[in-house]
């Protein structure tokens, strides 16, 4: 089980990402994604949501990737392939 930790209201005076990320505008109007969240929260109330099962991922060889741009590129390619394999199997 987990928690959604997100700002409820926009905080225009904040000067960081919380300026406009709330479910509700600073004036109290519910934003579109706030309405979507409200609908999902009601529909899923009391229902556990299992995390998706993911396949294996390549192990990052830090030493190689720090010293070789090619090793970093190959790692990213292998990781992307593993990610896409999981994504398309859903």
Overall description:
The chain has helices at residues 32-43, 62-67, 69-88. By secondary structure, the protein is mainly alpha-helical. It has two domains: 1-51, no CATH class; 52-90, no CATH class. The protein starts with 31 loop residues before the first helix and ends with a helix. The mean pLDDT is 87.
Give a quick summary of the entry:
This protein is mostly helical and 90 residues long.
Judged by helices, strands and strand pairing, the structural class is mainly alpha
- What is the oligomer described by this structure? single chain
Poorly predicted tracts of residues: none
Kindly report the average pLDDT value: 87
Cα radius of gyration in angstroms: 20 Å
Please state the overall shape, judged from the principal axes of the Cα atoms. Answer: flat
Content of β-strand? under 5%
Q: How many individual β-strands?
A: 0
Helix content: 40-55%
How many DSSP helices?
3
First-to-last CA distance: 21 Å
How many domains make up the 3D coordinates? 2
Largest sheet, if any?
Answer: none
Q: Write the element-wise H/E pattern from the N-terminal end onward.
A: HHH
